[in-house]
């Protein structure tokens, strides 16, 4: 166990040791290792807890027919979707398509979904790839209110809204002027109007800095590259405003009083090459004074960029040196930090150090004091900067004053007490802030606890998104699943409950009590202006080349057993599912026409296509609905 591992001689080493040493060697190779491979002394004392052998009672296993007590909303990474899990079982219940097409439901195939996703003038989808990282839900009074969730697409800088009644995406907005939209967080109330105690804004941090305008003319002027922090209206999904900043944005957090939003920055250097981004010993956590920014926008103190009409205020360092008028505050934190998380007591934001073995605790009242001219240096808002271990990335909370931070390089989760960390930082070296450590498998990124970033953090379950699963699951080829591990945090010691393989490549997730959602199981016909409300209204309606085919489904039959088109017809086919009972979904596929979609009970969808292939085509129901499901067909005849 004590041999010195090297990247060149992995034989005989545990995989975890090898991964660690390789990763550290990788950092050291560019001369940037922030600390030695040994664990920090302050953190080493508490030892490592292990899962009790055969602890099946706390495995999260549910008996057949039992329901989970928590929902989890997971990002799907570069599958581009959102996933819904049940916890503690870890069962995946559904995937919600948003940014990329989905063959199960016909997302990106129906006219309705294409209108949400966005099309080119020729009707093709504008984008068919996405990279979702962060999921957050709307708040009321500091807890989730079950209205919406939002998710980012890093590739094309889009934000999608998911309705949490139907678990479907209803709007997507592309952010102007930016690239690499990464961090996302809704506000938790209005900064000025106390009556508005719910989410009305969503903040979006863009990671990559680009020339403005990005027209290919000034690519070599890297000093002038900039990025922006964006505010999206929670209801309209319009971009309300943007803030031009120095450095970059990574993750995003918001305060419980609605006054502050923040993003951690790993590239204050403005580097365009790998090593340049790690040149400085400290980067920043950048705070935004939301009310002042909105005042500045109202007062017309903004510019616009490119073709966008979105007001952009100046949040750069130079323009914001006077605290009394500042819109932004840059707080210095070490080094290439990752993750900024708001503690459920509303008092602190915590930045994990990534290349520094530390977490930085920032007290929010002190940040506000600086904006009010009552604190001479904004860096004095830092109340703790304590060592945790190697590669700290993200932090979750149990509502009992403890924080749980992933240590990517150590392949551990460290549980630490925030108040004791503040005491330790304040000079009380007897304060033992590290409470517990647990090995995870392996190299964890995101972490979240049940109800973690709400006022109702309940300290029951902790989920850890492990980026490498190595030998934890049956081998299934070179692409490994990720390992989402569930940990019981109800006691003093963390207890590992279960491993769950998940298809790549989730990043962040939230976990909340199931009673916070009231999902609907059946649509209402009136929600769809194009609904075919009666089978008698079915038929082929022709206006020259434009042809409307209107039909209904009622198990086990479509309302049209056959219909005839002419070659070259521009067809819109509308299907309403008149079945009213829950779980009675039908599908409709058209061979050779690349069409397949589903209609849920009382739902209407439409597809448009050119009838360019003559012949007989059997439309059939793709979703098993009835004993006579296979007989559920309709004959489409396209005359030559
Ligand atoms: Cu949330 Cu993975 Cu995009 Cu950290 S990032 S791990
Ligand atoms: Cu309708 Cu299968
Ligand atoms: Ca840096």
Helical stretch count?
A: 6
CATH fold assignment of the largest domain = Methylamine Dehydrogenase, Chain H
The main sheet comes to: 5 strands, mixed
Distance between the amino and carboxyl termini: 76 Å
Taking all Cα atoms into account, the compactness measure Rg is 27 Å
Small ligands present: sulfanyl-(tricuprio-$l^{4}-sulfanyl)copper, dinuclear copper ion, calcium ion
Number of strands: 39
Q: How do the strands line up in the largest sheet?
A: 8-9-10-11-15
CATH class of the largest domain equals Mainly Beta
Helix share bin: under 10%
Query: What is the typical, i.e. mean, pLDDT?
Result: 92
Q: Based on the structure given, which CATH architecture of the largest domain is correct?
A: 7 Propeller
Structural class: mainly beta
Flag low-confidence runs. Answer: 1-57
Strand content: 35-45%
Overall geometry: globular
Question: Can you tell me the CATH superfamily of the largest domain?
Answer: YVTN repeat-like/Quinoprotein amine dehydrogenase
Number of domain modules: 3
Brief digest:
The protein has 640 residues and is mainly beta.
Essential attributes:
binds calcium ion, five-stranded mixed sheet, single chain, Methylamine Dehydrogenase, Chain H, 640 residues, mainly beta, binds dinuclear copper ion, 8% helix, disordered N terminus, binds sulfanyl-(tricuprio-$l^{4}-sulfanyl)copper, 3 domains
Q: What does this molecule look like?
A:
The protein has three domains: 15-67, no CATH class; 70-98 and 131-516, YVTN repeat-like/Quinoprotein amine dehydrogenase (Methylamine Dehydrogenase, Chain H), CATH 2.130.10; 527-639, Cupredoxins -  blue copper proteins (Immunoglobulin-like), CATH 2.60.40. Helices cover 8% and strands 38% of the residues. It has a five-stranded mixed β-sheet with strand order 8-9-10-11-15, with helices on one face. Strands 30, 31, 32, 34 and 37 form a five-stranded mixed β-sheet that branches. The N and C termini lie far apart (76 Å). Mean pLDDT is 92; it is low at 1-57. Sulfanyl-(tricuprio-$l^{4}-sulfanyl)copper (K7E) is lined by residues 133-134, 182, 251, 338-339, 393-394, 445-446, 507-508.
